[in-house]
């Protein structure tokens, strides 16, 4: 199908160009449009610089340094285990992507309108996860290549390593395909999360039974089977380990079985186009998840159709009129007692700021909910660290909790108002068309950020003190670390405001005249990244006296950069140097949109829960059939 | 509110969307902005609403230079894009309340106006429905009701007659626009339907490749093109197409 598409595309291009060449006017217009699309000299310079310096730094140096560190601490087994974990995580992620794409996405919406068979659609859709799985090959080449270089392999050894890297990639691809096709309801995301937590715990010095764990990967993980050939058969001369290659090859054969099964079983029954989300298909089993007993993700996703029935409840005109005349719709949102963070923020806001908050957060901030999620996750981490791995240092766990906290802090509230919407061929953020000022937005975000930072500080402090109690580290250190963390969150508010506002902004083209505007943020980013953050990290790593000075200096540098960045964007905004119109969504916004879809599923589930109580999911089959027009299936 | 557009120029990369546009729009007029695809109609409305920032030139509202940070001026106008900006999870009534509060128009008595608007647009039964469950036309009517209830001095619409509204909704829209201009409101809209612009607008502004090709009342345009019949706009567009080098 891809080959056909390519041929058609090439034939069309030729035909169009021939037609254009016949008319001088069309040729002129075509050349003008082509010139408009051409990259400027500065953009070419910038991209060359990024690819020439940033590329090798990120994609070559950093993996090599990491592999060298792992090899130094854990030996060849450690490197291979790390490669196996990365491969397994990639397999799970590819399987998850395959299942997601088979159920919903742009490809479904486009391809379902074309005269293509479902098996052809499946064939096209599976290319995306397959392309992503190249990541495994990349990591395997580094890990195996490093070991080959370290152990001074000859040409034969290097050939084996190359073959094993390809084998590792194919095994990983096969694992992902088999899981995605035969177990589409497997909790992929949860497995990756658990692996990450376990990885954090076992990455620390002093983790118990680490050698056993590293050895177990050769048998437990499919990615470890190919590793066994290199790690056991080749490096340790255990001849039985060659079986790993045979098992891995059998797994690769499973890839073809899975693909054939996918082509035979993938059937699209209907494609829905829900507003603000990607097109979703109703599929034949096993890919259609709206069946009883499908796991927690299934509950969230399948409630979409059921919610349509809940939302479509209409009022009579008289009821609506009475309701409107009460004027309740003009009042700010009243937060429930469970939404305590929202209530605290609400007290600090003016009436106008409340209206702005309602627009920017789409009236669903969910800050308290995020806080509880962090509390729950942190409690589990503390429990794991206390019960399972008692001798493991706690500081890493506190950092881990802090990082999770920061993510929740930045992502936990849906600032939907900064997202863009397609509008007459361009993308415009929601807030752009309503009368709201830059300073008003900044003030609101700052107030919210301060309250949320304080709330996260309390939580992280609690974990830190609990985690450090009776351990070798002074609880005072924990308090100082948490205080520095909270200060960092406050300091970074400037960057957070910039981040959200710039999601829907188009910055001026780089010209000599506007070069100063471009140079300034680059200077700020460089200073904060290469001076502020390293100083802060050094402050945490160094002993108390020097550490506090370094951390304080780092925080000061970051604060200045954060304020400077905000001030710069403000000036650009007020002087009209930026547009609130974009041609293409930023990659950050694309990422946030995924989060949005998950959030929407959660909202629908919550509505159902409110309507039917905690056992709402028992009614789900009925709701589903009602949504599909089979009202007589109602349970007794 | 008097609108003066002075030498407005806007480009996106190397492509010139508006080229030295100069216009004057008196209060209480209905102005149709016409032009081919990519002529710069939507960009003009975006510049007037402060969504896009012009490269050169300025917009004056009642003689005051308009900048994006002039929230007081922005509260005196609104822009309804072809796909209105609403949250799919938000109820229509909640959206109306939010918009009214943002425009500072939540004064006592506005409730009756909201009821009247929702009734006119057949949206009363859907007042508590989430936007996500509505059709495109219903969404447009819900968003329109909110902004019409705010009733600022300048109303701007991008392709309102291609918004998916039903005939009853379109009639209500025309009626509200006529009433608004009688109250001194200025209405600017873009459209591709020339007959409609000819019948509905007081003034017409034709953009071509970002420049103002013709602007004025229909009578003036007829005089200029020596045509006394209906269909003058069609004739101008035909001439425009033929005169291309």
If you had to describe this structure to a student in words, what would you say it looks like?
- The complex is a heterodimer of chains A (636) and B (245).
- Chain A is mainly alpha-helical and 636 residues long.
- Chain A is built from 25 helices and four strands.
- A two-stranded antiparallel ribbon of chain A has the order 1-2.
- Chain A starts with a helix and ends in a 9-residue tail after the last helix.
- In chain A, 35% of the residues are buried.
- Mean pLDDT of chain A is 78; it is low at 290-311 and 624-636.
- In chain B, the strands form two sheets. Chain B has a six-stranded mixed sheet, with helices on both faces.
- The mean pLDDT of chain B is 88.
- Chain B is α/β, with parallel strands linked by helices and 245 residues long.
- At the A-B interface, helix 2, helix 14, helix 16, strand 3 and helix 19 of A face helix 1, helix 3 and helix 4 of B.
Secondary-structure blueprint:
The complex is a heterodimer of chains A (636) and B (245).
Chain A: H1 2-22, H2 24-37, H3 41-103, H4 106-111, H5 118-125, H6 127-132, H7 134-150, H8 155-182, H9 188-202, H10 210-220, H11 222-234, H12 243-265, E1 268-272, E2 280-283, H13 295-311, H14 317-325, H15 340-348, H16 351-360, H17 367-387, H18 395-411, E3 420-423, E4 426-429, H19 438-468, H20 475-491, H21 493-502, H22 515-541, H23 544-574, H24 587-612, H25 620-627
Chain B: E1 3-12, E2 15-25, E3 30-35, H1 41-49, E4 56-61, E5 64-65, H2 71-74, E6 77-80, H3 92-102, H4 110-120, H5 136-150, E7 154-158, H6 167-182, E8 186-190, H7 194-200, E9 203-208, E10 211-217, H8 218-225, H9 232-242
Parallel strand pairs in B: 3-8, 3-9, 6-7, 7-8
Antiparallel strand pairs in B: 1-2, 1-4, 4-5, 9-10
List keywords for this structure.
heterodimer, A: two-stranded antiparallel sheet, two-stranded antiparallel sheet, 3% strand, B: 245 residues, alpha/beta, 6-stranded mixed sheet, 4-stranded antiparallel sheet, 25% strand, globular
